[in-house]
Amino acid sequence: MTGVDSKDQGAAPERIAALLADTANGLETGAAPVDAVVRAGRRHRARRRTATAVAAVVLAGTTGTLALTNLPGGNDRSAPAKPAPADERRVFLPQISTVAHGMTGDARWAVTVQVWSAPRDKAEAVEQTEAMADWGLTPATSGSPSDLVGRTSYFVIRAYGPQNATNDELTTRLVDSGSTSRLPWPKGTEVEALPQPLTGKDGPNRLVVGTVPTTAKQVACHWKDGSTTLADRAPDNAPLRPTKAVIRSVRDFPTANWFVCTSPGAAAYESAEVTE
User: What domain of life does the UniProt record list for this protein's source (predicted)?
Assistant: First the structure.
């Protein structure tokens, strides 16, 4: 599913737009309303209402705040993340973090990461698979829900649209996904970069999304015209403002931080390195 555009295909783009907007605006969905919506089969209508109300938050450049404190796991490799208490586990609802958003020309863009908790048994795995499908997502497994048991899933999504885009004009594209029992854990100065077009399906890779160690304070993104963009580590709970480059924590992804860089011009991506 990596690299699939989605626009006006069912309600999936609207649901992803709702996730993007909820995160950028610092909204938290309450437990009881979510349970009622999902279990009563009214998620479709609820997400449409949410999308209509707040989908423009990211694309409009509204400042929000990310609640990223108390990430489990820290930097201690011997101390795995503690599972959420039973009454807080909702494998059918992901944690969503907006890494960055901004504007290029007359287009808006955003990059988010969704993290889905590892199901403990087949029943939870089936529930999660159905929930992912409802958002238009497919986990990176062989296709059997049982494959998700004990595995955390994540999806990296970019969204883009005109400056004054309505929800129907928002396009989302999957950058990367994974389902794993051990999340990527870069060491030292390791960088994993995923170059992408900044907007549209094709064109020069003017956007790069990737992971770095949680100790990294700065990433230098080099472009083919010889220019360099510096992405600095944003403090947890720092306001989410339009940017060209940044490193951020992602909720429920304690083993690495994510960075985003955009080209200052038309030049394509060449390389990235941890400089601090």
Answer: Bacteria
